[in-house]
Amino acid sequence: MKRSVRNKIYDKVFEIIGYTATFFGLIILLYFITDIVYEGWNRIDYDFLTSYTSRKAEKSGIFPAWVGSVWILALTLIISVPIGIASGIYFEEYAKKNKITYMLEVNIANLAGVPSIIYGLLGLEIFGRMFGFGSSILTGSLTLALLILPIIIVSTREALKAVPQSLRDASFALGASKWQTIWLQILPSSMGGVLTGTILALSRAVGETAPLIVIGALAYVPFIPSSPMDEFTVLPMQIFEWTSRPQHEFLINAAAAIIVLLCITFLMNGIAIYLRNKWQKKNQW
Q1: Is the same domain home to 63 and 149?
Q2: Domain holding 119: CATH number?
């Protein structure tokens, strides 16, 4: 059998295996989502969204949890996005190609794959104990910012790489400085990719539980946090606490909270897709 024919057979077999694995994965995911929606959809109402947690399942709600999630998400956004985008711009546009830069780039890429619980241990020791922030919203936000910084940096660099060199050359030819070229031409042109990577990183952060457990996020919070130094809980923590209860009613509450968390995640991913498509249409060269 000729090599070209054998390679075509291998390609076809691999394609069939890939489609089959994807199909089964989607079927299993659809089953889980359907089961969760079936269990928890009827539990979602105004009282569930605006009630505090309770020892009685029928009176328990997710008000402190989703308010804490909003606090965490907002502070994580404020901390991580400026640093991540600025770092991506530096590495792509300003950093000299030497051993130190190469080592930093490799470490940043590897940090994106580090288990999230490691970031939790780091955040507990540095922010919680050394800086004295304790089990506060600020500690959680700083920890999650560290978690998603590598993703934002890498996505920013890839978005900047996608901008054609001709745009840079045209800007320089008109007398613009390097910073003017980056700020007025390159960054706006790459903003679709930058925002997509940023929102996807935040989508990961909003569903993290392990680092927040390590830093001491509470499972039962009978109050609403009003400042970054307050203790807190988040939706993943509330879901984790309810699933550990033996009563079936708490499992229904957990399913309802999962639906709310999925809606937030799907909304953020939808915004990312919309922004990416919008900027791709706007910046077609």
Answers
A1: yes
A2: 1.10.3720.10
Residue 264 and residue 223 in one domain:
yes
Q: What is the dihedral of CA 218, 235, 49, 44, to 10 degrees?
A: -130
Q: How many domains does the chain have?
A: 2
Structural contact between residues 53 and 238, judged by C-beta atoms closer than 8 angstroms? yes
pLDDT per residue rounded down to tens, the chain (285 residues): 566 777 777 788 888 898 898 899 899 989 988 988 888 888 888 888 888 888 888 888 888 888 888 899 889 989 999 999 999 999 888 888 888 888 888 888 888 778 888 888 888 889 988 998 888 899 999 999 999 999 899 889 888 888 888 888 888 888 888 888 888 888 888 888 888 888 888 888 888 888 888 887 777 777 888 888 888 888 888 888 888 888 888 888 889 999 988 888 888 778 777 877 777 666 555
Range of the domain at 20: 3-43
Q: Are residues 268 and 198 in contact, defined by beta-carbon separation less than 8 angstroms?
A: no
Are 64 and 190 within one domain?
yes
Question: Of the candidates 269, 272, 250, 273, which has an alpha carbon nearest to the alpha carbon of residue 261?
Answer: 269
